[in-house]
Structure formats: C-alpha cells, structure tokens
Write a structure and sequence with these properties.
It comes from Neoroseomonas soli. With 140 residues, the protein is mainly α. 76% of the residues lie in helices and 0% in strands. It has eight helices and no strands. The longest helix has 27 residues.
Length: 140
Amino acid sequence: MAARDRKDDEGFDLGISLEAVAAIVDAARAVQEGEESGALAREDEDDEGLDAEDDENMDEDALRAFIGDLNEDEQASLIALAWIGRGDYSGAEWSEARTLAKERNVRDTAEYLLGIDMLGDMIEEGLSELGLSLEDADGS
C-alpha cells in the first residue's frame, strides 16, 4: 500500500512497469546463477557442459533482446534502479540517477546491466529504496 500511496500522492513515476522489472530481475538471476553453475558443469562434464552453455546463452540472448526492446526511459530507469541498489545513489536521488543514466546511456544497455554482479538483487534493492517491491507487480 505504501508504494501505491507514494506513486499517487507524490506523483512518483518509475518510468517502467513493475511487471517488466520483475521479469528482468528473474531472468537476470537465472542467467547469472546459470553462469556460475554452467562453469562448474563444464569443468565436470565436457559434453553436457556444452549443452548447458547453449541453454544459458539462449536465456541470456532473450534477456538482452528484452532489455534492448525497452525504450530509452525504461532503460534509464533500470540503470538508475541498479545504481540505487548498489548504493551509488539514495532513493531520494531517484530523479538525478535516472537523468544521469539517460544522459550516459551511450552504449549497449543490456551489456552494461549484465556486467553488474548480482544485477537482480541490485535492482530489487533499488526498488526497496524507493518504497516499492517486486510483489507489487502481482497486485497491480
């Protein structure tokens, strides 16, 4: 309820749907966890590790395409959420972080975001700093 109050009362605009953020968080966690387990599989089982790697790449490719299909504002919002979750900015600095993310968004956003360790956790923490939750995506 607090997240809804904040959006309604303060005119807060996340700039991207919570449903899209939730999908990206889930996919990022799966891809990044898959990288770790895939590396272990390749060490233990050569042939099966290659199959696992192909599956991971398909998941990562789909995530990259999803992020690439977002508009500039949505991409900037994702970057700002990751920055806030990482502690580069506070929730109170949302507008500043989002503006800077939009100005600096000169390279491949998916490449940049997937280079952030624990991206899913960082984005979820960023949401939390803003008084939002991934659970709000289900109850919208």
